[in-house]
Amino acid sequence: MNNNLKKRIITSFLIYPPIVFVILYSNEVVVRLFLNIIIFLSAFEISKMCFFNNPNENGNKKHYYFIILIFISIFISNILIKNNIWQYLIIPSCFIWLFITFYLSTLENVKVIKKFNIMYFLIYLIVLSAFYCSLYTIYLMSPKSLLFLISIVAISDISAFFVGRRYGSRSFFSYISPNKTREGFIGSLVVCLILSFIFCLFENYDFYFSAKVIALTFCVVLASAIGDLSISLIKRYSGKKDSGNILPGHGGILDRVDSLLSAAPIFLIISYLISAIIQ
Fold first, then answer.
1. H helices within the chain, ranges in order?
2. Is residue 278 part of a domain?
3. Could you tell me the CA-to-CA distances from 272 to 192, 215, 233, 241 in Å, in that order?
4. In-domain check, residue 7
5. Is residue 203 part of a domain?
6. Per-residue pLDDT tens over the stretch 88-124
7. Which domain holds residue 211?
8. CA spacing 20 to 30 A to 207: which of 114, 118, 198, 223?
9. Chain segment 69-93, per-residue pLDDT in tens
10. Is 279 within a domain?
11. In the chain, how many domains are there?
C-alpha cells in the first residue's frame, strides 16, 4: 500500500465521524455554516483552476465575479428553500447534468482550454448553487436522508477504487480519467445495491418502500459517476492534477465532493417525486 493511499484511507476515516455528528446531532445553524464552507472552498478551487491567474482571462475579474455571485446564489437558494420553491433551481440543474452526461458520452479527446467562456462560468455557478440548495433541502426534510446520500456516494467511490484496483482491466472514459475502469463502476453499483438492500432490511421497510430506496440508490450511483468524471474533465481542461491540497491523499475539497455535485440534486428530485424520503 503506497503512502498516498494510506493518507487517503486515514483522511476518510477521520472526516466521516464529524460529518455524522454535524448532520445528526448539531442544529440547523451549524449545518448551514458547514455547507457554506464546503461551497465556498469548492468555488475557490473551481475558480482557481479555470479563471484565477489565467493569462488569457481579463485580470482575474471572472474569479472575483464568480465568488461574489456564489455568495448571492446561496442567499437566493435560502429564499427558495424557505418558500418551498427549491424546484426552480434543482430542476434546471438536473437538465444541466443531463447535458453534461450527453457531452461526456460524445467527447473524443481532451485538450487544455486556454480561456473558459461564459458558458462554463454559468454552468459552474448553477451547479454549485444547486449543490448547496439540494443538500440543505434534504437536511431539512430528513437528516437521515442526507446521511444516507453521503454514505452511498462515499461507498460508491471507495468500492469503485478498490474493485477497479483489483479487477479492473477495461478503461472507463480513459481520456478523462485513465484510472477508472468499467469493472470498478459495476463493482461499486453492485456493492451499493447490496448495502442498500441490507439497510432496508435493518430498518424493516416494507417491500414497496424498499424497492424505491434501492431504485434511488441505483440512480445516485449513476449520477455520482457523472459528477466524478465532470470534475476530472475540468482538471484535464485546466491542466491540473488536483483541484487543491487541503485533504491529504485526496487533493482538494472538490476531489472529495465531486460525486455529490451531481448525486445530490438527482437524489433530492427523485426521492421527492417517488416519496422515498428516508426518516
1. 3-25, 28-50, 61-82, 87-106, 118-141, 143-167, 182-203, 207-238, 254-273
2. no
3. 21, 13, 30, 37
4. yes
5. yes
6. 999 999 999 999 999 998 887 888 887 888 898 999 9
7. 3-273
8. 223
9. 999 999 999 999 999 999 999 999 9
10. no
11. 1
